[in-house]
Amino acid sequence: MPQALWHLSDNESAVQPVALSEKGLLVRALYSLVSTGTERLVATGGVPVALHTSMRVPGMAGHFSFPLTYGYSWVGKVDAPGHELHQQLVHTLWPHQTELKAPAEGLFPLPDAVPPLRATLASNMETVVNAIWDSGISLGDRALVVGFGMIGGLLSRTLSRMPGVQVQLAETHAQRQAQLAEMGFENWDGQPVDVAFHTTANGAGLQQAVDAVGTEGKIMELSWYGEREATVRLGGDFHYGRKQIISSQVANLPSDRRARWDFHRRKALVMDLLKDPAYDAHITQVLPFEEAPAFFEQLRSGAMPPLGTAFDYSPKK
Fold this sequence. Notes:
The protein folds into two domains: 3-120 and 283-312, Medium-chain alcohol dehydrogenases, catalytic domain (Quinone Oxidoreductase, Chain A, domain 1, Alpha-Beta Complex), CATH 3.90.180.10; 124-247, 3-Layer(aba) Sandwich (Rossmann fold), CATH 3.40.50.720. It is built from eight helices and 16 strands. The chain has helices spanning 36-43, 116-119, 122-135, 150-159, 174-182, 203-212, 263-273, 292-300, and strands at residues 3-9, 12-17, 25-34, 68-69, 74-78, 89-92, 99-102, 108-109, 142-146, 166-170, 186-187, 193-198, 213-221, 244-247, 285-288, 309-312. It is globular, with a radius of gyration of 20 Å.
């Protein structure tokens, strides 16, 4: 019987059986990635009622009022003899579980140069791509990334590949400061920037981003707060400086791309970016799937999670 990670209440998770659709291709799990910010809100009951429909993901069982399964970056191998995707490694949007049945059009084959563990970064990389598009950042710009979590790290890595773009980071947690230094990223020097990307989901970080940009600079808000509030002071030079706070979210393509791009083309771009093995550094913990409930117990406690955590579905040795 297939097993899934179930959030039974706002303080309990467990690995339990899950029913599969009768239709679709059977795919057996290899790895899935935890998107800690969003998944912490889901696991603690922080999804606003108004978003209960739009926040659902393919394959999700249950409801946000509990119990439910959730997750959105899953990699596995197709087990469908006779189908052209048989034995193909694929990425899809799905909760954490040992196997699934999904329509072929929902499965994206991995390029040979992207190993399955690294491919679990694809969903968060789609967020990164949207943020860069939304920002309009250009050759020679100075960028500040506030927060070195999963999104902040992947964003910094990707921005650093753009010619002439100077990337610096603002991070308050000592362990994360050490990690960003080990990866070769720079701390913010305090100079005004052209674009600031905020990823911390707290008002202090957003305020730092607002204050960091120069005249007519952009503040890209990537955080999702659920039902929490954030306080930001818009005095000082915010109004006089014509600064812009712009929300960037992954579920839709930017309006200036929709005539030419679709989600499949964006995923192809993400997979091309992920051919770079430097992205491996952003997955810092791989746990057996059986340990997923314990991981979420720690996540609910408010403790600083590892930079990136993936679940491994390999059989116990």
